Amino acid sequence: MNKTTNDLRRDIARVVVEDSHQWSSAMLGKSRDEYVTFITDTTKWGGQVELNILSSIYCFEIATIDIQTGRLDIYGEGRQVCSFD
What we know:
- There is one protein chain.
- The protein is mainly alpha-helical.
- It has a single domain (5-75), classed as Cathepsin B, Chain A, CATH 3.90.70.80.
- It contains 4 helices and 2 strands; from the N terminus they run H-H-H-H-E-E.
- It has a two-stranded antiparallel ribbon.
- Strand 1 (62-65) and strand 2 (72-75) form a beta hairpin.
- The protein is globular.
- The model has no long low-confidence stretch (mean pLDDT 90).
């Protein structure tokens, strides 16, 4: 995969716009319009929501470790079925 960070941001925004059921304002913590503005702003950082979306888009697991607490999170763990457009 050869994508820029801006490409990834646009991919995330597209998924949020296209799947209003999965990515509601309750899941995003703000309205979908506010979220799209947020995630496409290159001065903002992503987090759990973005890792979850990227994992679902690209059909791979993403593991993160918080080095201060040792907490391990895995996004897309055991994902079996992915479809590509």
